[in-house]
Amino acid sequence: MRVNVFMQIGFVSAESGQGRAKNVRNILLKNSVNIMLCAICWWAVGYAFAYGKTAGGLLGISHFFSDGETFDSKPWFFTWTFCLSAVTIASGCLAERTHLFVYPVYTAVVSIVVHPVVAHWVWGKDSWLNSRVGSPCRFLDFAGGAVVHIVGGLTGLIGAILCGPRMGRFEDGVQKDIPGHDVSSVSLGSLMLWFGWFGFNCGSTYIYMSDGGPAASSAVSRVALNMTLCASAAGMTSLVLASLLSGGSAGTFDLGVCCNGLMAGLSASTANVGFITPWASCITGTLAGLLYVASSRLLVRLGIDDPLDSSAIHCGSGLLGVVISGFLARPSYVRSMVDKNCGGLVYGMNGGTQLGMQLLGKYCRISGRNGFGGKRGGRVMTLWGGLRRWVKSDPWGSYVVRRLLVTIAWTALWSILAFSTLKRFQLLRV
Amino acid sequence: MRVNVFMQIGFVSAESGQGRAKNVRNILLKNSVNIMLCAICWWAVGYAFAYGKTAGGLLGISHFFSDGETFDSKPWFFTWTFCLSAVTIASGCLAERTHLFVYPVYTAVVSIVVHPVVAHWVWGKDSWLNSRVGSPCRFLDFAGGAVVHIVGGLTGLIGAILCGPRMGRFEDGVQKDIPGHDVSSVSLGSLMLWFGWFGFNCGSTYIYMSDGGPAASSAVSRVALNMTLCASAAGMTSLVLASLLSGGSAGTFDLGVCCNGLMAGLSASTANVGFITPWASCITGTLAGLLYVASSRLLVRLGIDDPLDSSAIHCGSGLLGVVISGFLARPSYVRSMVDKNCGGLVYGMNGGTQLGMQLLGKYCRISGRNGFGGKRGGRVMTLWGGLRRWVKSDPWGSYVVRRLLVTIAWTALWSILAFSTLKRFQLLRV
Amino acid sequence: MRVNVFMQIGFVSAESGQGRAKNVRNILLKNSVNIMLCAICWWAVGYAFAYGKTAGGLLGISHFFSDGETFDSKPWFFTWTFCLSAVTIASGCLAERTHLFVYPVYTAVVSIVVHPVVAHWVWGKDSWLNSRVGSPCRFLDFAGGAVVHIVGGLTGLIGAILCGPRMGRFEDGVQKDIPGHDVSSVSLGSLMLWFGWFGFNCGSTYIYMSDGGPAASSAVSRVALNMTLCASAAGMTSLVLASLLSGGSAGTFDLGVCCNGLMAGLSASTANVGFITPWASCITGTLAGLLYVASSRLLVRLGIDDPLDSSAIHCGSGLLGVVISGFLARPSYVRSMVDKNCGGLVYGMNGGTQLGMQLLGKYCRISGRNGFGGKRGGRVMTLWGGLRRWVKSDPWGSYVVRRLLVTIAWTALWSILAFSTLKRFQLLRV
Q: C228 CA to chain B: closest CA distance, Å?
């Protein structure tokens, strides 16, 4: 539980290393204030909004200031580290050019409004999004691929766009790299993040399997294995791909790309790491590595300056991670964790209720009675059948897509609002 | 348990960063030797003096060299990290000007004489301080606010005074700041300390609730929450206060003050974190932040050069933390941890035996029979009544004050003795 | 379990600090690739070779790609960190002069061929080495003194020899020190290694005592205590010894030697830390400190350039650690861990089957029936009797020596093969 805090040390180390020497003090101060302010906001309001007793499915309204007889510190602390991650991810995108005033404002907005509300809507059992749907499956977001990484990455992306690039980054249409001042700090920070992430993902297992018996212990180990493979595959893929794109000689292997690829792999694993097999984690990691390199280059092409590539790492990978569950979630793992009979699209070939179908629309919903593991045998569905249904289906109305869209829309709304207001009062840039 | 060792990494990182580049090697070597020597001293003698079978209430005299059938390695390791913290705290005050010979000497003195004896007297059930008192309450020092932080901070303060300031620190009555060489190291070190401190405080919960059941698990989480709030409040308070005192513009936010304030908050939380509510932790943190800034400025005014502000951080906050229990300890938490019916002064208004009263003198002692939770109902006592008794009471004879005074006197005695002897043989300064 | 990963952060930090500034990026990239590639190799093949179902006692052949119903992720992850340590140890010896291509090749060789095969042979119950011997004792290698440290150190040593020294290290027969660029990084890295090592050794306790009851918990604490003492004694010994050898003045205390001595102590403790007493750990640490300084100087004398002294630290200490069990293993600890009646040579004086005898040859083998703790009383054997048998015995045929020789021979064979091949194709040096 407490090891999640270690992620922050990794974040701070990686971020300060990627900044220029003149900005180190500023970056460190900003990150320290982020942590402290986020703790106070989450204690005062955020936790209550997110995990308090729901008010009409819209918002939690109990446990403000850790109040109330039923308040339990354990989930408070664990969920705080989630909120803190979302806040810190975004901070990377704003490095080296924003007004000191920006940080406390966006920390407060993310930890009071954006993350808690999304967490309440997407994860809360009684929220308006979840209470009306009698679904045979659940929205599978293992440890916050959407609720943490998409929220953090998207907030940061919007902030980076509204802030504009650092001076000298895109001059006369030519992009110039602004190298960080301490590569050791970046590399060690990435490894520390990895270490802390074990706490984040492995610890989340106990939310699903709270009895803590041998099954949970075995699931925790599977999570650790999957994360390791996903991160390794992503780091290797992005290292090799970026090198090939730059000519392929030995000198083109870029440590920064490797570290960022590793983190993209970890982000991508977050949403699905408990639901998929090691093989699937390797595939996820490879895709995350490709996606990271592609989105990093896309940002540069679009003239968006994200000093740490945080939005490329977290936003895209978070989305990838959620989507991958729809294809690769193994029914037996899903059942053991969320007690639902559903699985990924590829398991459709040997029967089972389809999470892939869930992703693809309401027409594909299949009742649990016929589902995987049912005593009367599963309903056989070919991959072809699944794809045909995809075409016919209504993605906008589907179970998962609706949750993703709500997350994205709410995050975008508040990010734009907050950063525009700051810009209006000329408090956005130094 | 082992995570406490991580505090040392934080200490070393913070201390080496605050030193000048030319002294880094020296600081690192000193800290390494501190750790190794303290381990050997604690194994050979320290643990036996502190936690061995008492000899007349004065000193433990069993388990030298981890000897004896009843020796258990578990408390050895845990208590070693306490002793190590006391040693390391003091080392910060002596940085950058002392003879290399000083470190092993004071490490041996603190880990053989000062800390073990105080631990035996204050924490030992059969010590002369505790055996004679039939008190309805106990001296509440959750994880060593007095026994670690006051001991460490005071030893360091006395060392800093006897050593005199670094060259160039106070020239012609003008104080000049001597900035550290690596601000990243300081900031990361502080966060690492925070991380390690979770082990220190959360782990201490199991000393009070050794069954390790759900109640203990819930208490551990409350400790983590309280620490987080206390540290955050202290860091924010000292950051803002120091900035206001320096003019209040954006440029006056000082990362170093923020890191030190954070640590002051952690020190202040150590003595009481298991006994108080999150609200009380916020208040404690705010006070610790104020106290740190004030005592840091006082040291400068007095011409005492403490390169890391260790004494300002640990000594004052340690004292604050112990005292705060007397006012804010919640009776139900105290009962669940030490099985005594007592609480802080503010809970006097709705009944209960008063730890605040304990702090304030023997006249206020109230028998457990009438105490909080007694079946015949608690004795109602107004805050006013408590304060009136304070005036009438004899603080010198009181339960808590006696322990604090013994701690301070013993620590001061040996510190003065050790450093004076070193000075006498011209081994104190380079 | 996951804390073992932290060792990698320590390794990376220590290694990058000991390199020159111009090589930091290279060192960091290499280490990152090591970790990622080792994870993939271990998942695909290594784990199957090492811990899969044996094929004729030669090689494991199940659980490739984490396949199979009986595959358990928990041992996978734990054993992966063992393999990773072996890989990383060797990487230190090759720093600053090898071709970028060397790292992935030797990572693959060590994590697919060298370490898994040795682990299967030495630790596997059905391996050809273990199945034929009806021994009253077991080869005592607590957490991989042979299987990790000798393998890693020896691979590195052979690599360092075949690579040749860095330019300027031994010019005209004069050795010149090439100082690292960041001493903080080295010192903090060593402490981080120490911290991670607690996970490594303490976690290994649960392999022997898998019920996890109070006996295991107490053994874990003893392991932590022993490690602490062994590391402290080794660090102090090497610090003082190296200073004495260099003249003995205050300026000759060398932080690097202290850090390396500490690590040598940790390496030496790895093989025996669960089987010996704190006193024995102190002795082991002292010997490890002496041995490190001696072997470091021997390497220089021989003109072998090991930039991090990794082979001096790990190879010699690994061997020392295994041998020390034969002399100092306490029978009651051995029995509680491996359920065999045997102990070290020094316990021969008060009776017991002798592990020392095991080390010293087959003539000394004593059946368990007469052994320590047998109901009909232990067989009394004087130290003198043990030594007399040593002279008469055939060390080459002995139980332990055979395992050590197999480990060394197999490691040497493949290391020479791999590095020679790379050299042949001029891919070894930059």
A: 7
Query: Is there a contact between B236 and A80 if contact means CB atoms under 8 Å apart?
Result: no
> For a pLDDT cut of 70, what percent of chain A falls above it?
86
Say if residue B1's pLDDT is above 90.
no
Residue B70: how many CB atoms within 10 A of its CB? Answer: 8
Element (H, E) at C401: helix C399-424
Select the residue from A9, A186, A188, A254 to test the C interface by mutation, using most C Cβ atoms within 10 A.
A188
A132 vs A117: CA distance, rounded Å: 18
Task: Please say whether the beta carbons of A45 and A114 come within 8 A.
Answer: no
Chain B residue with CA closest to C228: the answer is B39
Residue-level pLDDT at A238: 96
C-beta of residue B331 within 8 angstroms of C-beta of residue B373: yes
What gap in Å lies between CA A229 and CA B280, rounded to an integer?
A: 45
Contacts of B63 (CB under 8 A, 6+ apart): B47, B48, B51, B52, B70, B71
pLDDT for C392 equals: 52
The Cα–Cα gap between B246 and C152 comes to 55
Over residues B32-53, the mean pLDDT reads 96
- Measured distance CA(C312)–CA(A396) in Å, rounded: 64
Query: Average pLDDT over chain B, rounded to whole?
Result: 85
What band does B389 get if pLDDT is binned at 50, 70 and 90? Answer: low
Cross-chain residue pair B236–A185, CB shorter than 8 Å:
no
Q: What is the DSSP letter of A55?
A: E
For residue B256, give the nearest of B196, B183, B314 by alpha carbon: B183
Residues of A near C (Cβ–Cβ under 8 Å) read 3, 183-184, 187-188, 190-192, 194-195, 198-199, 202, 217-218, 221-222, 224-225, 228-229, 231-233, 235-236, 239, 250, 253, 255, 258-259, 262, 277-279, 282
CB of C37 within 8 A of CB of C83? Answer: no
Percent of chain A with pLDDT over 90: 56
Q: Do B77 and C224 touch (CB under 8 A)?
A: yes
Residue of C nearest to B181 (CA): C184
Q: Are the C-beta atoms of residues C7 and C201 closer than 8 Å to each other?
A: no
Q: B28, C183: Cβ pair inside 8 Å? A: yes
pLDDT tier, C133 (very low <50, low <70, confident <90, very high otherwise): low
- Which candidate, A146, A180, A192, places its Cα nearest to that of A318? A146
ipTM at complex level:
0.90
Minimal Cβ distance to B218: which of A6, A74, A101: A74
Q: Give pLDDT, residue C249.
A: 78
Nearest CA in chain B to A43: B229
pLDDT by residue (tens digit) across C228-251?
999 999 999 999 999 999 887 777
Segment C25-55, tens digit of pLDDT: 989 999 999 999 999 999 999 999 999 999 9
A2, A9, A25: residue with CB nearest B224 = A2
Measured distance CA(A336)–CA(B243) in Å, rounded: 53
Instruction: Tell me the nearest-neighbour CA distance from C284 into chain B, angstroms.
Output: 14
- What percentage of residues in chain B have a pLDDT greater than 70? 86
The structural domains of chain B, ordered by start, are 4-328+398-424 (1.10.3430.10), 332-360+362-397 (no CATH)
User: What is the band of C284 on the pLDDT scale with cuts at 50, 70, 90?
Assistant: very high
pLDDT tier at C132 (50, 70, 90 boundaries)? low
CA A28 – CA A91 distance, rounded (Å):
11
Smallest Cβ–Cβ distance between B185 and the set C184, C195, C262 belongs to C184
Torsion of CA C340, C344, C347, C349, to 10 degrees: 110
Identity of the residue in B199, B225, B235 whose CB atom sits nearest the CB atom of A76:
B225
